[in-house]
Amino acid sequence: MSKGYRYLAALTALLLLLAGCRGMGGPGVDYDALVRQTLAREYSFTAEASYSGTTATLQLTKTGEADLQADFTAPEALNGLSVTAAGEALTVRFRGMEVDLSAYAIPTQSLMTLVREVLTGEKSGKLTVEAEEDTVTASGSILLTTYQLVFDKETMALEKIVIPSVEGEAIITDFRFLDEEP
Q1: d(CA 87, CA 178)
Q2: In angstroms, rounded to a whole number, what is the distance separating the alpha carbons of residues 143 and 118?
Q3: Is the peptide bond before 164 cis (omega within 30 degrees of 0)?
Q4: pTM of the model
Q5: What angle do CA 109, 172, 134 make, to 5 degrees?
Q6: Which of 18, 32, 42, 153 is 20 to 30 A removed from 78 (C-alpha atoms)?
Q7: pLDDT tens digits for 124-168?
């Protein structure tokens, strides 16, 4: 084999190796850690959500360790409803009215309680994480119910939340980390 062919073969092998290392995927990736890191960050998204037979569209923003704000835009009956969970306080705003509640005053199976626990609760050792071709699915249980979180494998953007016990499902669009440029 001539020196030129050896050089070309080595260059091709190097390019193939580098191409195989793109993105977050690949052997040896700790998806459990990536899921926990994603959930620990600040982010926002739009969701088409269903919960116990009711469907709604909302914009959800997570800041800090466990602070969530959900702003509903549909259906018309919920348009303008805003629910903020910060620490142990829960503030509900709707059509000029505002009510402050303790997070412990609402049912444990309420939408806000479940979503808050799923997105911000302690996850260490409590998740089963499976990587598939295009997605990463994290399954766990909280407050006597199970849930699944589905992430895009390449970007770790959250794509779907499923809470079967309350017929809960959220299809997520426009996911973005708040510390990244839009």
Answers
A1: 20
A2: 10
A3: no
A4: 0.80
A5: 115
A6: 42
A7: 667 899 999 999 999 998 877 899 999 999 999 999 999 998 899
